[in-house]
Amino acid sequence: MAVRYVCYKGINFPPGYNSEQSLRFAETQFRVRDDDVFNVTYPKSGTVWMTEILSLIRSRGDPAWNRAVLNSERSPWFSTQLGLDAAQTCPSPRLLTCHLPLQLFPKAFFSSRAKVVYTVRDPRDVVVSYYHFSKMCSSYQDPESFAQFLEDFLRGDVPHGSWFEHVRAWRQLKGKDNVFFISYEELQQDLQGSVRRLCQFLGQELEDADISSVVENTSFQAMRENDKCNSTLLPRNIMDQERGTFLRKGVCGDWKNHFTVAQSEHFAMIYRERMRGLNGAFPWEWGPDSG
Ligand code: A3P
Hints:
single chain; alpha/beta; globular; two-stranded antiparallel sheet; 4-stranded parallel sheet; P-loop_NTPase; binds adenosine-3'-5'-diphosphate; about 290 residues
């Protein structure tokens, strides 16, 4: 069945949770507090991983609090109506999550001292993860084939818009002292070091044992077993676990198992064009077989 996306200012959003009103409110009227921390990503870049890391940093590595609080309260998804309601009554300091492109992000942020953590991931792994996710999540159109989904992704014709535009726009804020960029690949390569850098950015001093607890509780295995993270509590008509697994593989480079040589060359050509001026800025571009 065809899914009708919510279109707001030219960008499609999955229906059900998002509405034009909630997106407009988030952009133009959402009241940002100076001690807010926003977890911002393009879909499938490690959003839930970062939510878990940030909330565990906040609880000084204590997983009990994370387990006790509903996800919608722990880190409200404030571009949706449900998330907006939760965010507005949420005590400070808030942790807020979204996939909003920069141009739709709350205007009030730009005159505030609130912080943003922006996580970016190799777009080839993003498109593979997005393809599998779209097959299991009912708010997304079931893709016809991987080849078709890849073309749609490269054109920016997928929910939340173009990866290239999302990343390029947010990257303009690099260097601002209230915006922190990190990649999925850095988290994979050095989770402990990444947690330490995040603590520094957030101004939170944690003991070594607390840091170790954050790292242990945010390993792929630990999160896969944690029903606050693995989406298994969602009903089948929202997330069909028989059609896939939300915490699917959790690796870098799975795109190599999905792309043909021709797709990989085509992707590289478009990537070079669309990321002109930024080439060399991201970890997936550095390795010997970066494609
Ligand atoms: P894969 O589909 O490649 O496995 P998001 O939360 O933005 O939707 O991103 C989901 C992706 O992040 C999935 O990628 C998921 O497995 C991965 N992920 C989530 N938690 C992770 C963790 N602790 N370690 C590694 N990858 C993780």
